[in-house]
Design a protein that fits this description.
Chain B: Residues 20-29 have a biased composition (Basic residues). The complex is a heterodimer. Helix content of chain A is 50%, strand content 7%. Chain A has helices spanning 12-15, 19-26, 30-40, 50-53, 66-72, 76-97, 100-111, 113-116, 124-130, 134-139, 141-152, 162-182, 224-248, 259-263, 278-281, 299-314, 319-322, 379-388, 425-430, 436-439, 458-466, 502-505, 508-523, 525-534, 547-569, 571-581, 593-622, 625-662; strands at residues 16-18, 63-65, 185-190, 194-201, 204-211, 256-257, 271-272, 370-373, 393-396, 416-418, 453-455. In chain A, strand 8 (370-373), helix 18 and strand 9 form a beta-alpha-beta unit. By secondary structure, chain B is mainly α. Chain B is built from 13 helices and two strands. Classes of the chains: A alpha/beta, B mainly alpha. At the A-B interface, helix 3, helix 5, helix 6, helix 7 and helix 9 of A face helix 7, helix 9, helix 11 and helix 13 of B.
């Protein structure tokens, strides 16, 4: 007879443990247990069969792996939690006896660890445990950054102490400084929720969301104890990440923090970064540009360089070039047109990457501009993005806080002015062309300074996402802005993309078709006029259109398309017919050499397509039945999609043509 | 004097009522029991004889207050009780000088200094605890302490190369002959990903990549698509709500109708009881019918055989049906396999067609299909609708009205990724319900 197995002695019943059992085993209170689980990364689990796991009659709700909990028993933090529990007991006993002053004393001493010799705890050891490599930490940075940026923007309440908020803010600013120096910000997106940023750090794409200022309501259904626990952990994590990132580009961590400037709202400007090896010289230098050493240099070589620098300092003439590598810091910095060149001073010294006015380098997109942010624009995101893309000189209204390059709006060095206010009517009529805003001499309610470009904030985002300077006319104040598209959506090849010009996205066949059509319309203008009239209204405001209308249009277009095909296929005959209808002579000459060439081209293309199709058919024969079916279905949907895209493109072509005709 | 008695009754055996019959005019008066009245009158007479009615007398006449001590009584007590204890005597002694307080006091400012002997006018109470502080202490005692994590600036690289540390350790170990205590190994389960609440079971991104429709200044096609989608969703929800309301209404109507019918039937029954005499006959005949019902006769052998045959036949049919069903299912196996293959093919097709949509990073949190069984007792909270209405849609950043609540969003995302289980805010502790009752023993308590 086999050994009788008892229920609940093996298998799932042993592998899982209920939450109550776990709490009892660890001798903790439930909130403390929750905290510990969050910090150590122990998540609730689900057994396949709940009934087999729990012995109690009532259904337990949360289970953990027994091994996880067993491992938690070795956690050094556990002792700290127990100490806290002991303290709580002491206090409650004293309060129960009425010894209020004793209770206060216990609490005071616990809060003053240097007096009691019991230090408060840090989460340092957990960081390495949770994230064995730095890349693991970077991978989890999405959540961390979103949380910390969110908490940095919360109003302080009893649940969220001001200290925590200040700490979050500081860590976030430090991180932003790294992104600025290393030029690792890639994309940014203005959404209705907040501003998305994407950076690429050591090959990892990191995406986070920053709320708009002064918008966060505290709601009741969010558990702040849990959120606070996460934030405590993430604060420690970001601290270490920052340390690592700073030291990877040869900067000292933590950067110098100016309390006074911070109180005046300098934000990013309150920090001054120092190089690691400069500290040995005893002088601090603000370094915020990307012209830094990429790795920590060889100490010997560095010493040699230092010596030479000292020598150079004595004679005044040369010291600008080398010692003051970059005096940009914040506001003291002066705009210079020339770019400094950095040459290795000693043999074997680091070769610094040379700054260049190349338009290809997206990290230097705004390098040679001076910006001025007007009062109504969001300063923090704009400052961050502009700096991250190479801009050194940003001025703003003094209302927006300290740390500006200039507070004077009329500064002649300003090249770009970011503005987001409606245009007063009188002036609006003047600058109908869109170019006027740059040259307008008038200084009135809509003060315009000559020689600078006025743009709306979206220009900055669109420039950054497309990695090129967009035409500022489209973004002039008062102009209807082009849609702000998500940079995270990648258009599939052949898909209709409203941002690209037609030439860039249409297929060859389509282009030829269109040109043929043109030629044909030149021949018979009467017909084209009639056709055009049908779709004039869709040039108007798109948003007012109803769905039904659109469908109708599409149908109409379908017909047209078919018509077009027929026409072009038998162009000759068609022409004859039309001529007949109009009571004219057959105009064979109209089919000039150009059209002929096109026709031939098309023929060739069709032939090619046919051949390709045949090849495909042959190749399909080689496939297994299953794969062939899959392939066919794929082709079918692809064709459907591409037909849709083609329709959209045709529509746009028509609109553009109309515009050209009107102009 | 209180006396315990049985729970009810007067403790005597049950008996007949004593009052004799009062049939007939004579017997009526003669037989009235007047013993109580007579007793009372007798008592009154006795009181008058003894010196007047007690109820009419003043209390001074009835009682006297004894103010003289009974000297004899103390003599009767034993000697050791008459004298107070020595200990009590000692304790009763009081010094003219007040006792030194045992309270701790702060030392004089410069200890050893000779004061002028004049006490400071106001003594500072160093140990005074304000009411606010006290309430905070109470909260701390309840476990609501503020954070104890010390967040300091990072001063070392947490991911520094561990090789150097190892070397150091090895050097140490060569001179150490005691085996080092081994560190506990982390179990494999610790590295397992949390259970995501997505139906697909895939890990969800912490920050989903936003699509074009979430833009503050969206492209028309993106926005209209999203808007229509939301519209459709809202319509569906509304339809569902209305349907439920209708269902509820129908249910209530049906309940009301049946209630009314029942009432009407009751009324009719009452009426018939009082007015329709004819109903009696029917009832009687019914009762008779019941009474007359024949007792089942003994089954004959033929009958038994018949029943046996029927049962066997039934059994056979049942068995055949089961076999048939089994065969049909076996035949369907192929079909099921085909269906599964088809499903798989569809999935593969989707994957091949748009490999980018395959990764969940483009899916918004509210678009994720949730798994049926969620973690914990509570449901995942609904996500806020993040949509700018068409009339609020502005193409200026200044005029943008941000939508959604990021705090909620983050919290929901945590839950969605299974990092924690959903909780509900409980504003106050559940109080134990109490119900006041009287003990039943009060019935046993009488005053005699």
């Amino acid at each position: 007879m086999p050994k009788i197995k008892k229920k609940g002695q093996a298998g799932a019943a042993k592998n899982y443990i209920t939450r109550t059992q776990a709490v009892k085993k660890l001798q903790l209170s439930l909130p403390d247990f929750r905290k510990l689980c969050i910090w150590k990364g122990i998540y609730p689990r689900e057994p396949r069969n709940k009934k087999k796991v729990s012995k109690s009659a009532t259904a337990s709700t949360t289970f953990y792996y027994t091994k996880d909990i067993q491992y938690l028993l070795h956690e050094p933090l556990l002792q700290k939690f127990r100490d806290q529990k002991v303290l709580e007991k002491k206090i409650s006993r004293a309060l129960g006896r009425g010894d209020v002053s004793d209770a206060a004393r216990f609490e005071r001493h616990a809060a003053r660890p240097e007096a009691t010799g019991k230090p408060r705890y840090t989460l340092n050891h957990i960081i390495r445990e949770r994230y064995p490599t730095f890349n693991d930490a970077l991978r989890d940075l999405d959540d961390c950054l979103s949380m910390l940026f969110l908490f940095a923007n919360l109003p302080s309440t009893s649940a969220v102490p001001a200290k925590m908020i200040a700490r979050c803010e500081r860590l976030c600013l430090e991180f932003q400084h790294y992104l600025i120096v290393s030029h690792s910000l890639r994309k940014s997106f203005l959404s209705i929720k907040g501003i998305y940023y994407q950076a690429n750090i050591q090959g990892e794409d990191i995406l986070w969301l920053v709320p708009y200022k002064f918008n966060q309501r505290i709601v009741g259904d969010v558990d702040f104890r849990i959120m606070g626990t996460f934030v405590e952990f993430y604060m420690t994590l970001l601290g270490f990440v920052n340390y690592r990132l700073y030291s990877s580009i040869g900067l000292k961590y933590p950067p110098k923090f100016d309390q006074l400037k911070d109180e005046n709202g300098a934000e990013l400007g309150a920090f001054s970064l120092e190089g690691v090896n400069m500290a040995t010289q005893g002088e601090t230098k603000a370094v915020t540009s990307g012209e830094e050493q990429q790795q920590g240099p060889d100490p010997k070589v560095q010493a040699e360089v230092d010596k030479i620098i000292k020598q150079l300092k004595e004679d005044e003439s040369k010291n600008d070039e080398t010692a003051e590598e970059d005096a940009e810091a914040d506001d003291e910095e002066k705009p210079t047109d020339a770019i400094d060149k950095f040459e290795p001073v000693a043999p074997g010294g680091d070769v610094l990457p040379q700054p260049a006015y190349s338009s290809n380098d997206p990290s230097q997109l705004f390098a040679n501009f001076t910006f001025y942010l007007s009062r109504e624009t969001p300063r923090q995101p704009l400052e961050f993005i502009l700096r991250a893309f190479g801009c050194k000189r940003i001025g703003w209204d003094s209302v927006l806080g300290e740390g500006a390059f200039t507070n004077d709006e009329s500064d002649p060095s300003i090249t770009h002015h970011i503005i987001d206010r409606p245009v007063v009517q009188a002036v609006a009529s003047e600058e109908g062309d869109g170019e006027d805003n740059q040259t307008a001499q008038k200084v009135g309610p809509n003060q315009r300074y000559p020689g600078r470009i006025y743009v709306q904030p979206q220009w900055v985002w669109d420039c950054v996402n497309d990695e090129e300077l967009k035409s500022p006319e489209l973004y002039a104040p008062g102009a209807a802005l082009p849609p702000h598209l998500s940079p995270f959506v990648k258009a599939a090849p052949g898909q209709y993309d409203p941002t690209l010009p037609l030439e860039a996205q249409q297929t060859e066949a389509e282009a030829i078709e269109a040109e043929l059509e043109d030629a044909e319309k030149d021949g018979a203008e009467e017909g084209s006029d009639v056709e055009n009239d049908m779709d004039v209204d869709d040039a108007e405001d798109d948003e007012d259109e109803e769905e039904g209308d659109e469908e109708e249009e599409e149908e109409a277009e379908d017909e047209e398309m078919e018509e077009d095909e027929e026409e072009s296929k038998t162009l000759q005959r068609q022409l004859e017919l039309e001529a007949e209808l109009q009571g004219k002579k057959v105009q064979n000459k109209k089919v000039d050499s150009k059209t002929k060439a096109k026709l031939e081209q098309r023929k060739a293309l069709e032939k090619k397509a046919k051949e390709e199709a045949e090849d495909l058919e042959r190749a399909k024969g080689m496939l297994s039945k299953k794969k062939r079916k899959l392939f066919e279905q794929m082709q079918y949907t692809n064709n459907k999609k591409s037909a849709q895209d083609e329709k959209l493109r045709a529509k746009r072509r028509k609109l553009e043509k109309e515009k050209a005709q009107k102009a | 004097m209180p006396v315990l008695k049985p729970l009810s009754g007067d403790g005597e055996a049950p008996k007949q009522f004593k009052q004799p019959s009062r049939k007939g005019k004579k017997a009526w008066r003669k037989n009235v029991d007047v013993t109580e009245v007579e007793q009372g009158l007798d008592e009154l007479n006795a009181q008058i004889i003894k010196g007047g009615v007690i109820a009419e007398k003043k209390s001074e006449e009835l009682f006297a207050i004894d103010v003289k001590p009974d000297t004899e009584l103390t003599k009767k007590l034993p000697k050791q009780l008459r004298k107070p204890l020595k200990a009590d005597e000692i304790l009763a002694q009081r010094s003219a000088v007040p006792a030194v307080s045992l309270k701790k006091r702060p030392a004089p400012e410069t200890s050893g200094k000779v004061t002028d002997g004049v006490l400071p006018s106001k003594r500072l109470r160093a140990t005074y605890v304000t009411q606010k502080e006290l309430s905070r202490l109470k909260r701390v005692a309840d476990g609501h302490h503020t954070t104890t994590v010390e967040v300091v600036d990072a001063t070392f690289d947490a991911w520094a190369d561990p090789a150097e540390e190892k070397k150091k350790k090895q050097v140490e170990e060569t001179f150490n002959f005691l085996p080092k205590a081994e560190k506990p190994k982390a179990p494999k389960t610790l590295t397992q990903q949390p259970i995501s609440l997505a139906a697909t079971g895939k890990q969800l991104p912490a920050v989903p990549k936003p699509k074009g429709d979430k833009s503050y200044n969206p492209a028309f096609t993106d926005y209209s698509e999203r808007y229509q989608e939301e519209l459709r969703k809202a319509e569906e929800a509304e339809k569902k709500r209305l349907e439920e309301l209708e269902k509820e209404r129908l249910k209530q109507e049906a309940a009301a109708r049946s209630r009314a019918e029942a009432e009407a039937a009751e009324k009719r029954a009452e009426l018939s009881e009082w007015e329709d005499d004819s109903a009696w006959e029917g009832a009687e005949s019914d009762a008779e019918g019941l009474a007359k019902k024949k007792r089942p006769e003994r089954k004959t052998q033929a009958q038994r055989n018949k029943i046996k045959r029927r049962k066997a036949e039934e059994q056979r049919l049942k068995h055949e049906a089961a076999i048939k069903k089994k065969e049909a299912e076996a035949a369907r196996v192929k079909q099921i396999a085909k269906e599964l293959a088809e499903k798989e093919r569809q999935l593969a097709l989707q994957k091949a067609e748009n490999p980018e949509e395959d990764d969940a990073s483009m899916e918004e949190d509210d678009e994720v299909e949730l798994r049926r069984r969620q973690l914990g007792k509570f449901k995942l909270p609904e996500k806020d609708l993040e949509l700018v209405l068409p009339d609020e849609l502005q193409d200026s950043l200044r005029l943008l009205k941000p939508e959604g609540n990021l705090l909620k969003d983050r919290y929901r995302n945590m839950l969605l990724r299974g990092k924690v289980e959903a909780r509900r805010h409980i504003p106050f502790k559940k109080q134990a319900k109490t119900k006041v009752t009287e003990k039943w023993t009060f019935k046993d308590f009488t005053l005699d």
